[in-house]
Amino acid sequence: MSENGAFRRFFRPNAVSAASAENPLQSLLAAAESPQPQETATEPGAPVGATDQLKREMVEQRVALHRFLLDRVNLSFLDTMDGEELVEEIRPLVREYVRDRNLPMSSRELDALILDTTNEMLGLGPLEPLLKDDTIADILVNSYDQVFIERAGQLEETDIQFKDEDHLMRIITKIVSAVGRRVDESSPLVDARLHDGSRVNAAVRPVAIDGPMVSIRKFSKRPYTLERLVSGNSMANGMRLLLTAAVKGRKSIIVSGGTGSGKTTMLNALSSQISGRERLITIEDAAELQLQQKHVCRLETKPPTLDGRNEVRQRELLKNALRMRPDRIIIGEVRSEEAFDMLQAMNTGHEGSMCTIHANTPRDALSRLEQMIGMAGMPMSQISIRQQVASAIDLIVQVERLHDGSRKLVSISEVTGMENEVIQMQEIMAFRKLGVDEGGKVRGQFIATGIRPRFLEQVAEFGLQLPDEIFDPSRRLS
């Protein structure tokens, strides 16, 4: 492999053409960068294109430079350096590397190479530019040579590549080891987080048939508030007023929605309305909530060790949280038997607690909650379980990711009690779809159903009054 060819993007145009006679690979580069007649689709089994081949070679050479630097840099000081310090440390070494290999590079190209190398040493290598791009919401690594992103609700393929599966595995190991977790053949699935709170899920062989996969859900550096969701047209201002009163009035809330619908974002925004005088305990599989209060205690589950022992599940954390004098308990996502303990907490003096749950409708959310309570193995009849749910839950906030990629609060429903053996609910506000415009965007409007929630009298005790017009069905919610 030619090292000169591997750094194609750092060559000046005249340097490429001058060396082409001596280096066949550079001749190939010059041809690849020249205008070419349009070709038909590549047949199966055809040779890999020059651009893809050189892209892989560039990645390989960047990793080779990384290893060269690791041999020369004092590793004992590496963890104490920030990005700027490392740049100054490796700049003369990179110049030496480039000079010894006769790589003609401008000062700007050299700076770009140093930045790439710094990302490899201190950051997450090829993923660093994507992590720094605030317009990207999700990073989806399907394989070492295929990376997608989600921007503005739409998926896009990038030209980011790793050298090979081993290179990708090193990055995955770097992520999970930072939070005390592991991923290997015996434990091929893992949830983790980045230092900024972004959520990471990784799957490796043997469950990932085509090689390691990574999904990163990035979080905004600017904390989400209900006001910001209103300005982003994810909800109406009338909904904001209602939810603000519910949170401040210590109503227990479940945020329901499908995968990628914005449940955690909504939970973060709701929590922004909690008083800073309250003690909050958060419980999560991988800590990702961004609560803005000072008095927050965060608990995180722990996976089992290699011998299958010492696992700490959400249920144990919830039981322990009750001994920590919480004012409210916030669970990132209820998945299993911890639902029973959560309802017990809500029914015994911890009103105003919140959680998220995977469900497509408010009614489905209640059904899933019943099923998860049954997993606790408690000797309870179905009607007893439903009575527990009806007495503990006040509001169900349903969020949805629409087919155009936008995320909306589509329903706010109040749980009003039991009638016979059925939990009763009433929808207070909703988003009604009206169609699709020429650009493929979903058209719709936020409405009030005309029903006033029963808890209004209770929140009035906190001095919270809501304007009558937000419940008027003849008016469009602003």
Model description:
With 478 residues, the protein is α/β, with parallel strands linked by helices. It has 3 domains: 1-35 and 46-121, no CATH class; 123-221, Beta-Lactamase, CATH 3.30.450; 226-471, P-loop containing nucleotide triphosphate hydrolases (Rossmann fold, 3-Layer(aba) Sandwich), CATH 3.40.50.300. 36% of the residues lie in helices and 21% in strands. The protein is built from 16 helices and 15 strands. The protein starts with a helix and ends in an 18-residue tail after the last helix.
Content of β-strand:
15-25%
**DSSP E strands, number:** 15
Structurally, the number of domains stands at 3
Sheet with most strands: strand arrangement: 9-8-10-11-7-12-13-14-15
The CATH superfamily of the largest domain bears the name P-loop containing nucleotide triphosphate hydrolases
Looking at the structure, what is the overall shape? globular
InterPro entries: P-loop_NTPase (IPR027417), T2SS/T4SS_dom (IPR001482), T4SS_GSP_E_ATPase (IPR050921)
Pfam family, one: T2SSE
Family: Belongs to the GSP E family.
Protein name: CpaF family protein
Topology:
Elements lengths: L2 H4 L6 H7 L4 H10 L16 H23 L10 H18 L6 H16 L5 H5 L3 E8 L2 E6 L2 E4 L7 H13 L11 E5 L5 E5 L9 E5 L8 H6 L5 H12 L4 E5 L5 H9 L8 E5 L11 E5 L13 H8 L6 E4 L6 H10 L6 E5 L3 H13 L7 H11 L2 E7 L5 E13 L2 E15 L5 E7 L7 H5 L18
Parallel strand pairs: 7-11, 7-12, 8-9, 8-10, 10-11
Antiparallel strand pairs: 1-2, 1-6, 2-3, 4-5, 5-6, 12-13, 13-14, 14-15
Helix pairs in contact: 4-5, 4-6, 5-6, 12-13, 13-15, 14-15
